[in-house]
């Protein structure tokens, strides 16, 4: 079955990818491996990472693809496959996955959203940076080590205490 996905060339997208077993912590346990895989794919199939957060069982990213290129599915497929090959086996596999010789590291599908405008971009970047606080992994966004928020703070785009102490308003980022 083919799923309908936005496929605008040179566009900016928000993504969410989840582990198949949501109780596992593979992404943060092997964060350097995941980063290496992403950098390798980025060298072969360029894209710009506007924001990224890696949590124990899922990640969120905002990517901008090069002009004339809409092929984010190949990039994610390659990242997921390379990470799965490098991480030690130990996950549960369904009969369907086992019969196809597939690992059971990632959920097969992922969420993508085509960013519409600057306000949509800002809302999704904030959502990414606030996610560790939302999930109770940090009191302030900057406390989470696996986040692009540190790049934003270094550039002066966000204060170091952003995402903590009630300075975000309602903090729902359009999730209602």
UniProtKB/TrEMBL annotation:
<dbReference type="InterPro" id="IPR036515">
    <property type="entry name" value="Transposase_17_sf"/>
</dbReference>
<dbReference type="InterPro" id="IPR002686">
    <property type="entry name" value="Transposase_17"/>
</dbReference>
<dbReference type="GO" id="GO:0004803">
    <property type="term" value="F:transposase activity"/>
</dbReference>
<dbReference type="GO" id="GO:0043565">
    <property type="term" value="F:sequence-specific DNA binding"/>
</dbReference>
<dbReference type="InterPro" id="IPR052715">
    <property type="entry name" value="RAYT_transposase"/>
</dbReference>
<protein>
    <submittedName>
        <fullName>Transposase</fullName>
    </submittedName>
</protein>
<feature type="domain" description="Transposase IS200-like">
    <location>
        <begin position="8"/>
        <end position="131"/>
    </location>
</feature>
<dbReference type="GO" id="GO:0006313">
    <property type="term" value="P:DNA transposition"/>
</dbReference>
């Amino acid at each position: 079955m083919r799923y309908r996905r936005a496929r605008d060339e040179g566009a900016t997208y928000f993504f969410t990818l989840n582990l198949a077993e949501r109780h596992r912590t593979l992404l943060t346990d092997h964060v350097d491996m995941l980063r290496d895989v992403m950098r390798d794919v980025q060298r072969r199939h360029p894209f710009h990472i506007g924001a990224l957060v890696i949590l124990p069982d899922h990640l969120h990213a905002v990517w901008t693809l090069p002009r004339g290129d809409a092929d984010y599915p190949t990039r994610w497929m390659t990242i997921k496959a390379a990470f799965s090959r490098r991480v030690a086996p130990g996950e549960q596999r369904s009969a369907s996955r086992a019969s196809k010789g597939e690992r059971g590291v990632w959920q097969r599908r992922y969420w993508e959203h085509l960013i519409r405008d600057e306000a949509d971009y800002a809302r999704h970047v904030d959502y990414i940076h606030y996610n560790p606080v939302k999930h109770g992994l940090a009191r302030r966004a900057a406390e989470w080590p696996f986040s692009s928020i540190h790049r934003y703070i270094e550039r002066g785009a966000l204060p170091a205490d952003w995402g903590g102490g009630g300075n975000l308003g309602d903090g729902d980022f359009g999730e209602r």
